[in-house]
């Protein structure tokens, strides 16, 4: 049980600490900013030209403060916030009052996770395989072509790429639906039609995520393989005439995978952000669209909920990858 | 009886640094032969071309290194083969079976994610015809035990072994097919003194057990004194002296060899140790004539003009120096 | 200067340098702008590119070219501020953690790892949405800088760790130099190249963030940046109305910036990595 004591428990503690730090940030940011959400909310009304007498303004402030958990001392608020967080209770949403934030997130999360999980894994696998070969045979013609494409696509922010795809396939070649996750008003059933419709709607958002993801992993893997290729153990195996196939898989790729897995864990947060933007662009019914609506309507509770849930989802995924890592690298097993 | 010979062998690194052509003469017109059943030590300062010579002997010539002239002969069962004139697919069969290679002790030569037994299988399988798994396993275990290692190391990963143990495993890996020639490039560098002894001992044992040839490169003259039967001294891509070990230490001829030996500490001698003045020349811009003349206390006009031949001045004692050419000792 | 001349031998760096030069020229042109970018209806509306308005005009009656000059200037400025702020934090955290070690290192690295793992984007959105009224290019730069340092702090730390193992550090410590002089005299020269190569990557991240935040509507839309330009064109339905010049201008120029910064960072990091350099020499 050395594994539990020396590997699992320290990581479990870190896992909870990271969530704690993230949640604490989410709690303190709005409270330390010079503009508070209640004032902002009131200001929205006044700029819209709604007249309110001082009494009703005061009533509204106290209602909002209660709604947002802004009553009492900072310490009380913090304690209250942590208790509510542990129950995943973020209060009612303003944008779809009085639906609880929890319910809205529960509706959106599966779409995002589904889109994200499949594209992340797929692009990681494709990118790593292509990058592996490209790093091992850097002088092949296709490698140079893929390299060039990667050089242009890789640095683009998700939004620009998603927008380009939207223009290309939505307006110039209208093949795929550009909005939504399912046909409007349709009911999702477990049949072929539903699945095809879901896939069709997911195609463009998925493609944009796949494109960027694949090239990011491609470049990462290519660089790592070039380094591993000149490691002594690879050269020595070559001297001894170990077959090339074995060298590529068991010596080069096998070792290059390790930093690539760490890279996957560390980049999940970024990928998640990217997915949110993609969803906004294609109005995909996931967390990104929800976030957009939250920002658009000034729905403070919803925003807090999305932020907190994102932190949990990402840290949990990173934690899971971290737990799988010792299966692949014998060196970390008992450290 | 020779097992390996080189004839007028030259191998240069051809570099192109931002449009400037640079030729590094790492191995320069070397003709030398290695006998069966001996440990041949090659000594010299770093950057004298000894590692490059090993690469060329082992047929590991990759750009920017290029064979410019001469040949390398592998001699087996009285037949000699010029390895660089042999087609690539026929060269393969000499590696590990005829000639194998032990790299530097500090190197990270074992795949960190593979068990030692798996690495052994990887190295053994492509070099033998029979690949019956149990037979393979038996052969590996037998070899490991013969070299005085414990069977358990096969189940370990490289990071679980100490540096000295890893080097012994590497030697076992290099000798699994009982090659006729073992090339060892600084096998004890970066190991502590106690571990060095063990590694040297294992090499000696292997040699006396299999009666094969070990070509041992190290800059450590102490190691040479302990294990080598013959010693060759390299300077600036050439051999400058070669003799039996005792002869070299008792009667060094070349001024450079004298410096190398004088720099060794000796019991009961309190004198300050002298090393050769100056530093080795850059192999990309060698001085005219004898490459050692700028550092040589006996340099003559002749030395600056032309390079001396590598000639036998006594039985088995060769030297390349104008001080001895044509002079009877 | 010698470094710069060496870098210019790399074609990728050459291309990047030309693009950056062009963008800088554009930024300086703002000084001669005939129109105030915050004013509407200064020129005719929705005109396609022609001689007087080489990149056309918007449906709010603004000249796309002159808005672009301001947008490029502001976006570059924001990213530069973000880059400098995050460099300072990364250097402080990295040097402190690497040099002090022990508990301080553990705490700082835990914080750094938290920043790496937590989806900062949503937190930045939260931050920006609440502080929206006070958002200008300087505040946005500082905000992005305050969140974008974690990865580079790790890089700096590992560099400091390897420097600390080197003999000259021991010599300095044994000869009685104090911490500050060791860090400033011995370490900073080694860290400067690292600061530059990571600065570029960080700037490109900051521009991407700026665009995203603008699209999301949590940045002040009165300030012309590449992001707000794009946001105005999209929200004015320029795509559907066929005003391609209005959409394409910010898109093309952001891609140009990203490609240039990327090429530059690749070229510089290859230049700094001796192993990659050697490979290049060997291949030639």
Automatic annotation (TrEMBL), chain A:
**Taking every annotated instance into account, which residue ranges of this chain make up the domain ABC transmembrane type-1?**
109-325
Keyword Cytoplasm tagged? no
Q: Which family does it belong to?
A: Belongs to the binding-protein-dependent transport system permease family.
Name one cellular component (GO) term.
Answer: plasma membrane
What name does UniProt use for this protein?
ABC transporter permease
| One Pfam family of this chain | BPD_transp_1
The record's section on InterPro entries has:
MetI-like, MetI-like_sf
From TrEMBL, chain B:
Biological-process GO terms, alphabetical: peptide transport
Q: Which InterPro entries does this chain map to?
A: AAA+_ATPase, ABC_transporter-like_ATP-bd, ABC_transporter-like_CS, Oligopep_ABC_C, P-loop_NTPase
Q: Does the keyword Membrane apply?
A: no
Against Pfam families, the record matches this protein to: ABC_tran, oligo_HPY
Q: Which domain of life is it from?
A: Bacteria
Q: Which PANTHER family match?
A: OLIGOPEPTIDE ABC TRANSPORTER, ATP-BINDING PROTEIN (PTHR43067:SF2), OLIGOPEPTIDE/DIPEPTIDE ABC TRANSPORTER, ATPASE SUBUNIT (PTHR43067)
Q: What is this protein called?
A: ABC transporter ATP-binding protein
Q: Which organism is it from?
A: Fervidobacterium pennivorans
From TrEMBL, chain C:
Does this entry carry the keyword Transferase? no
Q: Its Gene Ontology biological processes?
A: transmembrane transport
Compartments, as annotated in UniProt? Cell membrane; Membrane
In Pfam terms, one family for this protein is: BPD_transp_1
Q: Name one GO cellular component term.
A: plasma membrane
Q: How does it sit in the membrane?
A: Multi-pass membrane protein
Identify this protein by name: ABC transporter permease
TM stretches of this protein: 12-32, 76-96, 108-131, 190-223, 243-268
> Main location per UniProt?
membrane
- What family does the entry list? Belongs to the binding-protein-dependent transport system permease family.
Q: Which UniProt keywords apply?
A: Membrane, Transmembrane, Transmembrane helix, Transport
**What PROSITE patterns does the database record attribute to this sequence?**
ABC_TM1
Residue limits of the ABC transmembrane type-1 domain?
Answer: 72-265
List the InterPro entries hit by this protein, alphabetically.
MetI-like, MetI-like_sf
Lineage: superkingdom: Bacteria
User: Which lineage?
Assistant: Bacteria, Thermotogati, Thermotogota, Thermotogae, Thermotogales
**Chain segments annotated as coiled-coil in the UniProt record:** none
């Amino acid at each position: 049980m050395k594994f539990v004591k020396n590997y699992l428990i320290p990581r479990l503690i870190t896992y909870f600490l990271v969530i704690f730090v993230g949640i604490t940030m989410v709690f303190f940011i709005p409270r330390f900013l010079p503009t508070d959400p209640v004032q902002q909310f009131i200001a929205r009304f006044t700029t819209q030209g709604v007249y309110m007498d001082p009494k009703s303004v005061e009533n509204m402030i106290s209602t909002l403060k209660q709604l947002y958990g802004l009553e009492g001392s900072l310490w009380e608020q913090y304690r209250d916030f942590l208790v509510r967080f542990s129950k995943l209770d973020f209060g009612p949403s303003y944008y779809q009052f009085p639906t609880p934030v929890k319910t809205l997130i529960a509706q959106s999360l599966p779409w995002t996770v589904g889109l994200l999980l499949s594209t992340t894994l797929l692009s990681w696998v494709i990118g790593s395989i292509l990058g592996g070969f490209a790093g091992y045979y850097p002088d092949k013609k296709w490698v140079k072509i893929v390299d060039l494409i990667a050089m242009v696509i890789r640095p683009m922010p998700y939004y620009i790429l998603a927008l380009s795809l939207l223009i290309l396939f939505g307006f110039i070649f209208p093949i795929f639906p550009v909005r939504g996750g399912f046909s409007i008003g349709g009911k999702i059933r477990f049949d072929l039609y539903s699945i095809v419709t879901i896939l069709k709607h997911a195609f463009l958002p998925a493609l944009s995520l796949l494109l960027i993801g694949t090239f990011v992993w491609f470049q990462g893997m290519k660089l790592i393989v070039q380094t591993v290729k000149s490691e002594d153990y690879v050269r020595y195996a070559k001297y001894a005439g170990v077959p090339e196939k074995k060298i590529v898989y068991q010596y080069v790729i096998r070792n290059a995978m390790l930093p690539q897995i760490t890279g996957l864990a560390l980049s999940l947060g970024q990928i998640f952000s990217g997915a949110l933007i993609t969803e906004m662009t294609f109005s995909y019914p996931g967390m990104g669209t929800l976030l957009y609506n939250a920002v658009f309507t000034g729905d403070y509770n919803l925003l807090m909920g999305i932020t907190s849930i994102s932190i949990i989802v990402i840290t949990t995924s990173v934690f899971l990858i971290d737990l799988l890592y010792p299966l692949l690298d014998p060196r970390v097993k008992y450290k | 009886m020779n097992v390996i010979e080189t004839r007028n062998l030259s191998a240069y690194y051809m570099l192109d640094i931002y449009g400037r052509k640079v030729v590094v003469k790492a191995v320069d017109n070397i003709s030398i032969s290695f006998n069966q059943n001996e440990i041949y030590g090659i000594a010299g300062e770093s950057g004298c071309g000894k590692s490059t010579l090993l690469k060329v002997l082992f047929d590991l010539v990759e750009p920017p290194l290029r064979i410019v002239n001469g040949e390398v002969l592998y001699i087996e069962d009285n037949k000699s083969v010029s390895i660089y004139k042999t087609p690539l697919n026929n060269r393969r069969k000499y590696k590990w079976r005829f000639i194998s290679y032990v790299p530097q002790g500090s190197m990270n030569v074992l795949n960190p994610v593979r068990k030692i037994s798996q690495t052994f299988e990887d190295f053994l399988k492509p070099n033998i015809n029979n690949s019956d798994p149990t037979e393979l396993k038996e052969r590996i275990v037998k070899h490991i035990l013969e070299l005085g290692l414990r069977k358990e190391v096969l189940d370990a990963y490289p990071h679980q072994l100490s540096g000295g143990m890893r080097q012994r495993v590497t030697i076992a890996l290099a000798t699994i097919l009982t090659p006729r020639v073992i090339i060892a490039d600084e096998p004890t560098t970066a190991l502590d003194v106690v571990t060095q002894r063990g590694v040297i001992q294992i090499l000696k044992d292997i040699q006396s057990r299999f009666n094969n040839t070990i070509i041992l490169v190290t800059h450590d003259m102490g190691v040479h004194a302990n294990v080598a039967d013959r010693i060759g001294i390299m300077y600036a891509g050439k051999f400058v002296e070669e003799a039996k070990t005792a002869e070299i230490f008792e009667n060094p001829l070349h001024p450079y060899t004298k410096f190398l030996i004088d720099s060794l500490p000796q019991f009961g001698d309190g004198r300050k140790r002298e090393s050769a003045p100056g530093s080795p020349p850059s192999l990309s811009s060698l001085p005219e004539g004898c490459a050692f003349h700028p550092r040589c206390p006996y340099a003559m006009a002749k030395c600056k003009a032309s390079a001396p031949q590598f000639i036998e001045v006594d039985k088995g004692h060769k030297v390349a120096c104008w001080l001895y050419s044509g002079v009877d000792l | 200067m010698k470094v710069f001349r060496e870098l210019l031998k790399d074609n990728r760096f050459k291309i990047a340098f030309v693009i950056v030069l062009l963008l800088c020229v554009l930024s300086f042109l703002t000084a001669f702008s005939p129109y105030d970018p915050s004013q509407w209806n200064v020129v005719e509306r929705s005109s396609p590119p022609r001689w007087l308005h080489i990149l056309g005009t918007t449906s709010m009656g603004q000249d796309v070219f002159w808005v672009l000059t301001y947008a490029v200037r502001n976006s570059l400025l924001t990213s530069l501020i973000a880059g400098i702020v995050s460099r300072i934090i990364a250097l402080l955290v990295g040097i402190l953690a690497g040099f002090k070690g022990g508990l301080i290192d553990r705490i700082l690295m835990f914080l750094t790892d938290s920043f790496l793992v937590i989806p900062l984007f949503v937190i930045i959105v939260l931050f920006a949405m609440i502080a929206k009224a006070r958002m200008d290019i300087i505040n946005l730069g500082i905000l992005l800088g305050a969140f974008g340092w974690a990865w580079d702090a790790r890089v700096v730390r590992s560099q400091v760790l390897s420097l600390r193992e080197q003999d000259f550090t021991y010599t300095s410590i044994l000869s009685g130099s104090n911490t500050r002089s060791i860090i400033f005299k011995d370490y900073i020269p080694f860290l400067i190249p690292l600061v530059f190569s990571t600065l570029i990557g960080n700037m490109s991240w900051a521009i991407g963030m700026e665009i995203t935040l603008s699209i999301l509507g949590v940045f002040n839309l009165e300030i012309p940046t590449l992001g707000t330009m794009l946001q105005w064109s999209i929200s004015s339905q320029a795509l559907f109305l066929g005003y391609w010049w209005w959409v394409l201008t910010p898109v093309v120029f952001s891609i140009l910036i990203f490609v240039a910064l990327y090429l530059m960072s690749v070229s510089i990091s290859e230049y700094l990595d001796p192993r990659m350099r050697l490979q290049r020499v060997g291949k030639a």
